[in-house]
Structures are given as structure tokens and as C-alpha cells.
Amino acid sequence: MPELVTRALTIEDRDEAVILFGPRDQHLRAVRDALGVKAVYRNGELRVEGTAEGVDQFVRVLDQLRQIGRKAGEIGAKDVASVLEVIRGATQRGGSPVVATEGGRSLRTRTDGQGRYVQALQTHDVVFCVGPAGTGKTYLAVAWAVALLKSKQVRKIVLVRPAVEAGERLGYLPGDIVAKISPYLRPLYDALADMMEPETVKRYMESEVIEIVPLAFMRGRTLNQACIILDEGQNATVAQMKMFLTRMGANSKIVITGDMTQTDLPKTVRSGLADAVHRLRDVEGLSIVYLEQSDIVRNPLVTRIVRAYEEEGGRKRGGE
Q1: Which sign, positive or negative, has the C-alpha torsion 206, 253, 103, 161?
Q2: Would residue 73 be called left, alpha or beta, if left means φ above 0 and alpha means ψ between -120 and 50 degrees?
Q3: In the chain, how many H helices and how many E strands?
Q4: By C-alpha distance, which of 289, 285, 230, 218 is closest to 254?
Q5: How far apart are CA 133 and CA 123, in angstroms?
Q6: How many CB atoms sit inside 10 A of residue 193's CB?
Q7: Are 130 and 277 in contact (CB under 8 A)?
Q8: Full-model pTM
Q9: Can you tell me the distance from the alpha carbon of 120 to that of 82, in angstroms, rounded to the nearest whole number?
Q10: What one-character-per-residue DSSP string does 90-148 give?
Q11: pLDDT in tens, the chain (320 residues)
Q12: CB 71: neighbour CB atoms within 10 A?
């Protein structure tokens, strides 16, 4: 018989506990029963008992649900089922495969948050992914788009980015329009270059199977059977975000990524990403995924840098 272990988790905020556990503790019971553990909450402490694997999965599920609850203000039964599926599947598979590159390398998710993101990409036609730098928001979106293209589920990939600074300085930059906007689109080229051989990328771009364009160039288009990715969505205005979302044609998929803390818009202009995740949060067929510092997969120093900036921002807001 497997040895049982016990973990104690602190949840002192009663309001958070109510959201986390669900109406009449439905969420808590669903997680407990699915993982075969015992869980009792008393006086701000949740005690969990079960096998080492079961308790570890329970803690990971609870951590993901806490993140969802803190960002969205609520947790639904679908959220619980989704997180359970991701974490149990990741334990069995060692991460969710996303796409095999041309060199045969399988790209896998590396955190539970990334697992939720990929699951959303697989099950929804429109996905918003919001999180700090280094969490793989754009990289995974491009990988997913390449996988769809290779499997012939889409016929075209369109990678889009707002060129906020370019709107003011475009006339002063040297070269034609392509040369002027190229620096703003460079991160998308870099992500694409990791997924496909340079010759393939060049061929697809010449035939417009893959397009990399500034957001302003999307007006008036309707894209069918395409995967359309908007990177740095926090730099789109509300009107631009609406325009972008309505470019979606038949059998197409849209992914919007962004970091709310890095908006380059004027202070008087509301971010289209912030507006959209609030306005569209209850729209059927659409998923909003939040990633956190724990999902940063770059050099570990990036996590510490992000945390330092967020703490400084918190102190400034607290002093205002």
C-alpha cells in the first residue's frame, strides 16, 4: 500500500476560499475526488492527505485555480475540469507536445500554466493569453500556428504586431515601408525561425502562406482558414482590437498575446487588450488564459527582474 503524506496549505482570506472551493465546496470536492485525496479546511488552513503523487497534483491544481480566481474574480466548473485535465495529463506525458519542428524536435510545455494555454489553443477558436515577459506567450502561439499549417488545418498564418512608436516616427526612418516596420516585427521573425527551416520560411513568405504585418495593415481584410496571431496586444487601442477580432473568417483561429504591465500607449488611451479581456470574458467559444511569474521559462534571472519591477510598481501605487 502506498505511503500517505500530508500537506498543509494556508488560505487565510475567506473570500478567496469561497471562490476557490466553489458553491457548497463543489470545486474542492471535484478536485479531491478526481485525485483520490482527503482535504479538510479549518481556520484558514487546508490539510491534504493522500499519496505523494496525489497530494502534489492537488497542490498544483489549487495553485492554478488560485491564479484564475485572482485574475478573473471567479472560478467555474469548466475551469476546474480544464486544470485537472492539464495537470493529470502533464504528469502522465511529461508535458504536452505542441509541434515537431522540421528537425524532428518536439516542443513541449514546461509549466502547468503553459499547459492550460495549449489546451485553450486546442479547444477554442479565439484565445487571449496575458502574462509577463518570458512565459512563452508568443512562442507557443507561433508553434501552434505552424502545427496547424503542417497538418493542413489552416492554409495561412498571419502574424501581427502594433507598431506604436512607428506611428509617430515612421516618416523619419530610412527605407521603404517594409524597412521602416521591420524592427517592430523582428520578434515574430525570430519565433518563426525557431520552428521552420529558413528556406521554408522564405518560400512561405514569398507565396504569402505566411505574412508578418503591422496591425494597421489588417483593416478591411477577412481571413478564411487562417491562424492569426496578434502579439503585444496591450499596445492595440480598443478600436484596433475590435477591428482585428472582426478579421476572422470561416474556419480561422485567432490568438492575442500581451502583457498588461508593458503598455506603450499614451496614458489617456485605454488598452484594447485590457478592454477585451473584461468585455469578452463571458463570450462562448473564447478563452482567456493568464500566465504568471511561475510560468517564466527564460533565464531564471528574468523571473527575479520581473518580480523586482512588479514590487516597485506596487510600492508606488500604494504611496499614491
Answers
A1: positive
A2: left
A3: 12, 11
A4: 230
A5: 24
A6: 12
A7: yes
A8: 0.83
A9: 9
A10: HHHHTS-EEEE-TTSPEEE--SHHHHHHHHHHHH-SEEEEE--TTS-HHHHHHHHHHHH
A11: 678 999 999 998 989 999 999 999 999 999 999 999 999 999 899 999 999 999 999 999 999 999 999 888 899 999 999 999 988 876 555 555 566 555 556 677 888 999 999 999 999 999 999 999 889 899 899 999 998 998 899 999 999 988 765 444 455 445 555 565 667 677 778 888 888 888 998 899 899 999 988 888 898 999 999 999 999 999 999 999 999 999 999 999 999 999 998 888 988 999 999 999 999 988 988 999 999 888 887 666 777 787 787 676 555 545 54
A12: 16
Task: Extract the C-alpha cell encoding 143.
Answer: 508553434
For residue 304, CA distances in Å to 113, 261, 278, 309 come to 18, 16, 29, 9
| Complete DSSP assignment for 260-316 | GGG--S-TTS-BHHHHHHHHTTT-TTEEEEE--GGG--S-HHHHHHHHHHHHHHHHH
| Distance (Å, whole) CA 258 – CA 138 | 9
All cell numbers assigned to 7 = 500537506
What residue type is 130 in one-letter code?
V
- Measured CA to CA, the distance from residue 231 to residue 212 in angstroms comes to 11
Question: What would the grid cell of residue 2 be?
Answer: 502506498
* 3-state secondary structure (DSSP) of residue 247: coil
* Identity of residue 64: Q
Alpha helix stretches (DSSP H) within 151-176: 166-169
